[in-house]
Amino acid sequence: MFELTKEYETGIDKIDREHRRLFELADECYNLLKDDACDNKYEKVRKVIKELKNYAKFHFSEEEKLMESVKHKQIFTHKLQHDYFIEKIDAIDIDDIESNQDQYIIDILTFIVAWIRQHILSKDAQYVRDVIKNP
Questions:
Q1: Who's near 119: CB < 8 A, 6+ residues apart?
Q2: Considering just the CA atoms, what is the radius of gyration of the chain in Å?
Q3: 79: number of Cβ within 10 Å
Q4: Which of 6, 12, 19, 49 has minimal CB crowding within 10 Å?
Q5: Which homologous superfamily does the CATH classification assign to the domain defined by 6-132?
Q6: CA-to-CA distance for 63 and 57, rounded, in angstroms?
Q7: What is the C-alpha to C-alpha distance for residues 65 and 78, in angstroms, rounded to an integer?
């Protein structure tokens, strides 16, 4: 369902591979939501959230290193968006999942997909236009 299409590609292979993994994690959430055979999704949701948090931290660090290497002028505001994403994921109360698992997955998925789409299409695309393709 969620995949890195042409419109989300930055043209930087390393970043595109990392973005693809973020889309895969969103897809894992979606597939879990649609899995009617699984009546208790708690452990699976926990696993996906943990992996998302760890992978996002890794990816953001890599992206920020790239921006630092070319002295990107908007690195501070870009990093603030990365920090916001991590704060939102860190704020997820895993104990709340038990009561309404599907709604919880929908809420997480809505946030992840909206943030990733906006960030890649806006901030990352601007970074590529400003620094990588027009140095």
A1: 81, 85
A2: 16
A3: 15
A4: 6
A5: Hemerythrin-like (1.20.120.50)
A6: 10
A7: 12
Q: Torsion angle, CA of 58/72/26/85, rounded to 10 degrees? A: 80
| 127 vs 125: CA distance, rounded Å | 5
The answer to whether the CB of 23 falls within 8 A of the CB of 9 is no
* 15-53 tens-digit pLDDT: 899 998 988 888 888 888 888 787 777 788 888 888 988
Q: How far apart (Å, rounded) are the C-alpha atoms in residues 99 and 117?
A: 29
- For residue 103, the one-letter residue type is Q
Distance CA 74, CA 42 (A): 39
Task: Give Cα 20 distance to the centre of its chain.
Answer: 9
The average confidence (pLDDT) of the chain is 84
Q: Which of 9, 2, 3, 4 is nearest to 125 (CA)?
A: 9
pLDDT at 73 over 90: no
